[in-house]
Design goal:
By secondary structure, this protein is mostly beta strands. About 0% of the residues lie in helices and about 55% in strands. It is built from no helices and seven strands.
Length: about 120
């Protein structure tokens, strides 16, 4: 069960090698994560805040953005997941494909993402 208002969530980055598949449910199913060897990126990504807003037609879930400073990263998608501690236990939430983007000893940022679930 996922509780967007209290659970811990993270965002990780993947390269263009990764192709989303609706059969993937756990972080351990993901391949092509950005490497962490002196790039300013840490395996598993960064923690993000989540905001839940109910409205008359459903629920809106906003995942905060993330920023890697002083990084050298090339990524094409951000994957948000519920962090339980181990990749085989972490639940995937969504994949945001933003196309190939990179940073070279600078800032790499992912803007906030919104999921709307309508009644």
């Amino acid at each position: 069960m996922i509780h967007f208002d209290v659970d811990e969530f993270k965002v990780m980055l993947v390269t263009g090698e990764y192709i989303p598949n609706d059969q993937e449910t756990k972080r351990s199913d993901i391949y092509g994560e950005v490497t962490s060897n002196n790039s300013g990126y840490k395996t598993g990504g960064l923690s993000v805040k989540v905001f839940v807003r109910k409205w008359d037609k459903g629920v809106e879930i906003t995942f905060d953005g993330a920023e890697w400073t002083n990084s050298t990263i090339t990524a094409s998608s951000a994957i948000y997941y519920k962090s339980r501690g181990l990749p085989i236990e972490d639940d995937l939430i969504c994949c945001i494909n933003f196309g190939a983007t990179s940073s070279s000893n600078g800032k790499f940022a992912v803007t906030e993402s919104v999921i709307r679930i309508q009644n």
